[in-house]
Amino acid sequence: MSTAPLIDDFIARWKVTGGSEHANYQLFVIELTELLGLDRPNPATDDDSNDHYRFERPVTFAHTHKRTTGFIDAYRAGHFVLETKQGVNQKKNRAADLAKGTAARSQKRIGHGVRGTAAWDDTMLKARNQADNYARAVAREDGWPPFLMIVDVGHVIELYADFSKQGQGYNQFPDGNRYRIYLDDLRKDDIRDLLCTIWTDPYSLDPSLKSAEVTRDIAAHLAELGKSFEGQGHDSETVARFLMRCLFSMFAEDVDLIPRGSFTELLRKLRGHPQDAEHALAGLWQAMDKGEYAHALLTKVKKFNGGLFRDPSALPLNELQLDLLIEAAEADWKQVEPAIFGTLLERALDKRQRHKLGAHYTPRAYVQRLVTPTIIEPLREDWRDVQTAVQRLTEDGKTEDALKLVRDFHHKLCETTVLDPACGSGNFLYVALEIMKRLEGEVTSLMIELGDTRPLITVDPHQFLGIELNPWAANVAELVLWIGYLQWHYRTHGSAAPSEPVLRDFKNIRNADAVLEWSDRTPRMDAGGNPVTRWDGVTTMRHPVTGEEVPDPAARVQVFDYAKPKPTQWPRAEFIVGNPPFIGNKRMRDNLGDGYVEALWKAYPKMPQSADLVMFWWEKAALAARAYDAKKGKGTRRFGLITTNSLRQTFNRRVLEPHLNDPKKPLSLLFAIPDHPWVDTLYGAAVRIAMTVGAAGNRVGQLLTLASEDKEKSEAEGRQVTFDRQIGKIWSNLLVGANLSDGKSLISNAGLGFMGVIPHGEGMVVSEEVAKRLRSSGPLPDGLLRPYCNGRELTSGTLNRLVIDAFPMSDTELRSSAPSVYQWRWDNVKPFRDSNRDKDLREKWWLHRRSNQELRPQVRQLEQ
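Request: output the structure for the sequence above.
Response:
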């Protein structure tokens, strides 16, 4: 790395420059790379061989009726777009002094403006938007670069980053407090290392990579503690609340909400006499609840309130439990990633899900891919309009009017509400909060540059609303939002407490059913007077053969009948986003119970009974969006939901079509991805989903179809995917172009195409390994094991499953001709079918739900 004298010389040489960007910027960048020990940009050639790293890199802008060419000041593919300007420092003219022999001096050139003035601020803002346009243009060839660098030559480098590789919005990096690198900052080793990394390995700066690793380690410690406490006879809820108070205390000491390191030090002092821990911790938490003197820390602490410490009780600890708490406390809680912490914490605290702690979680990049077009894009469109108006007003000298415009936008941003009506442990709400905080950082920066002080209001958790059926997840979601909010405040302002009480009980996360309300419910009994039960919908186990997560047949709950069912009333929100539960229409009765499903259909009489459960959320969100009134500020501006990728199929399209085709108040899909990898949080398993973003009006949208998908995946980032993009009207089949979903069946095709069999039940379809084991006990009848795949597997060439097809055998015939298969069905299919309300499915448990007897003679002819 460069020596101090070389750095001092560089700073001294460039500090006095000014007035002419074109005369200076290339030399500045070359000398900067030499100072950092980096390769300088390549010379331009008569072809494009050096376009990956050069000055004046040409790009083409595609407009509606024409194409224009622009030139990036400095560019490195896959690394950065660098846009330069040249300001000057405020200088006064100097008269000649004959006695000293100094000549007169006048400031002849001011370049793009005198630093610290509105003209300079305006220049830097324009450069930021210009760089964003360059990144968009170059992305068609090289992909989106992770960094934008806005340089006032000889004065400052501004950093903006987007690690999504999808152009989801560049934000100040690492935050609004530290995104500017001034020339004198080059004396700091960490600043020079940062610039070197942007030049050489920019994606290693993605904070989510480190955060994911830290978060997993912490969750593992908490799970071990939970298991230990429950083994002593403490109930799960008491254990969970105790651990939540512990972990927030660990976070609080790392962001200076309580004295730095004080909680960890308290735990260490308790080593050797853990019997005193219960009293010491309870005393500390009582003081934190009320903002009193904490004897355990020998200092007065802030008032936290908010409900978390309302019950300050602690559990008795042994030496092993105390050591586990100390290990968890020694982690860097500033690095925790709230977007995934919620899922892992929920699994750690809930003993029904603890064994899934090692399973995959939904990567933040996937969540952000939906949050961005749903919430951030429209807010940034509004912000760009404000920026344009501010530029015009400042040019006219109307600074007060410009400041009022920015203040009004900030006030509106601080009242913008987001609802996740199936919020789980809060990952969608947190990502929305964080990106809105990043936008707020840009807004408040401009307010201060226009002469304002730091605003008294801010984007905070009261704007992020959730509905969640699982009480564990609802509690975790609220905690995750507060940790994320305070974490952001600490990184931006150097302290984590905007005001007291630190935590507020906004009651923004509601523990409730998001689609159904009722006046009363009564247990359902069978004909013999015995309770009717179903799987609890949460508890899973590892399948003894496949190793996959499957419902635990021993985890049963009562089935109820519901009186006066009606749709749940959602709170008003400008944006709706989320990931409702994945339950197909054929599994709704098994997973939710007959009584609930019947009540659901009664409450939503217009919903087709063939629709998947997620479509009830889609229906409610679509109605809210179509009721949007921008002038009155009512209704929902946009909604974005994750659904199964069967959204395009006829039985779910019936929900979309009335909204998209309404002649008076239609809904439009503004963004859609028909097929995308995802992680089912219940099973921790890889699934395929669709993303849709809807808004009122008759508008075109952006359709992203999967172009490539890397089978290798990073847990923090998920699978790397690329998309082909189309702009146009998106129809209910999630295609643009001709509306094929309006096509009619051809009579001439009757008898040529058939639906395949519907097996119905875990164990009907088996892996090649299971099939091999079934065959090992003796020969099986021809056709009993047949290759089986769905449409996605067929198109991807993944043909590794077989279906057991016992039609037209009786159960006696199956038992005598294939005892191994009969036993497999008895163990893996019959228990599932026994609780089904369909008599035919219960009594003919060894056969498929639909054997499709029309198809069989046609296939038999092909086989012959």
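The first strand starts at residue 53 and ends at 62.
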